[in-house]
Amino acid sequence: MTIAKALTIAGSDCGGGAGIQADLKSFQERDVFGMSVITVLTAQNTLGVHGVYPQTLEAIGAQIDAIFQDMGTDAVKTGMLFSDEIVHLVVEKLQQYKAKNIVVDPVMIAKGGAPLLQKQAMDTVKSRLLPIATVITPNLPEACEILGLDSINTLEEMKKAAKALRELGPKYVVLKGGHLEGSNEAVDILFDGEEYFYFTAKRIDTIHTHGTGCTFAAAITAELAKGKSVHEAVGTAKQFIQAAIEESLCIGKGIGPTKHSAYRLR
Ligand SMILES: Nc1ncnc2c1ncn2[C@@H]1O[C@H](COP(=O)(O)OP(=O)(O)OP(=O)(O)O)[C@@H](O)[C@H]1O
Ligand SMILES: Cc1ncc(COP(=O)(O)O)c(N)n1
């Protein structure tokens, strides 16, 4: 029996809504064998990030080696990488093992405002990580940070930003519009260097969106692992995250997680 394999290289969210935990749940939901490399442990719940504990470079490198020297993977997602040294290491290892279908979610700030990427790492993300990506999935604040923009406020500005992001080297850009204000739709734009594709869904009025970015990028990764095209993968991931947010969970006292099983159970 064979199964597609996907690897996530990201931070652990002990609260289960984002990071490694969201990724593995999403891989499982999409019938892909999930594997993980933990870069950082976070002490985190729906109220915020209470502690960040980076793993040693030795531990991170050994986890990546263990996976690539034996099992290999059909697609890989990166999430919270936190420090400059970790970004460097991950890029080197992905190049060494000629990893394919690399989905980079350039995680920078948690919903509650906690920094998940140190300022010094930003240049390395731009110059080393984005160029090796098949797909990048920034949200609007992340796109602004990468491009040095004050804000992105309209679909036209999103298109321009997607084009500028693609010039940094990734094959495909998925610019997520979850943060676009004043719209009753959540519109994500896919740019492949030639055409823009819009993935639109009704904006759901909920605060329980912890881990939406991780879940969406993990669903894209799972579909790429199964051999789907980027367009198909983004389409499925959009439906997956929409269902997960529609049935999002009021667990904890703050910003609750989404329901990863919602799409499958429909
Ligand atoms: N309220 C909402 N209703 C419907 N879709 C949403 C909503 N918020 C976000 N989305 C969708 O969820 C996906 C993730 O987008 P978002 O912009 O929230 O990512 P993010 O900010 O990176 O998430 P995270 O906060 O987990 O890092 C996108 O497809 C986006 O359009
Ligand atoms: C380990 C980890 N990775 C990513 C996120 C971003 O998710 P969110 O912005 O929804 O908190 C997070 N909070 N924690």
UniProtKB/TrEMBL annotation:
<dbReference type="GO" id="GO:0005524">
    <property type="term" value="F:ATP binding"/>
</dbReference>
<dbReference type="InterPro" id="IPR013749">
    <property type="entry name" value="PM/HMP-P_kinase-1"/>
</dbReference>
<dbReference type="InterPro" id="IPR029056">
    <property type="entry name" value="Ribokinase-like"/>
</dbReference>
<dbReference type="GO" id="GO:0008972">
    <property type="term" value="F:phosphomethylpyrimidine kinase activity"/>
</dbReference>
<keyword id="KW-0067">ATP-binding</keyword>
<dbReference type="GO" id="GO:0005829">
    <property type="term" value="C:cytosol"/>
</dbReference>
<keyword id="KW-0418">Kinase</keyword>
<comment type="pathway">
    <text>Cofactor biosynthesis; thiamine diphosphate biosynthesis; 4-amino-2-methyl-5-diphosphomethylpyrimidine from 5-amino-1-(5-phospho-D-ribosyl)imidazole: step 2/3.</text>
</comment>
<keyword id="KW-0808">Transferase</keyword>
<feature type="domain" description="Pyridoxamine kinase/Phosphomethylpyrimidine kinase">
    <location>
        <begin position="13"/>
        <end position="258"/>
    </location>
</feature>
<dbReference type="GO" id="GO:0008902">
    <property type="term" value="F:hydroxymethylpyrimidine kinase activity"/>
</dbReference>
<keyword id="KW-0784">Thiamine biosynthesis</keyword>
<comment type="similarity">
    <text>Belongs to the ThiD family.</text>
</comment>
<dbReference type="InterPro" id="IPR004399">
    <property type="entry name" value="HMP/HMP-P_kinase_dom"/>
</dbReference>
<keyword id="KW-0547">Nucleotide-binding</keyword>
<dbReference type="Pfam" id="PF08543">
    <property type="entry name" value="Phos_pyr_kin"/>
</dbReference>
<comment type="pathway">
    <text>Cofactor biosynthesis; thiamine diphosphate biosynthesis; 4-amino-2-methyl-5-diphosphomethylpyrimidine from 5-amino-1-(5-phospho-D-ribosyl)imidazole: step 3/3.</text>
</comment>
<protein>
    <recommendedName>
        <fullName>Hydroxymethylpyrimidine/phosphomethylpyrimidine kinase</fullName>
        <ecNumber>2.7.1.49</ecNumber>
        <ecNumber>2.7.4.7</ecNumber>
    </recommendedName>
</protein>
<dbReference type="GO" id="GO:0009228">
    <property type="term" value="P:thiamine biosynthetic process"/>
</dbReference>
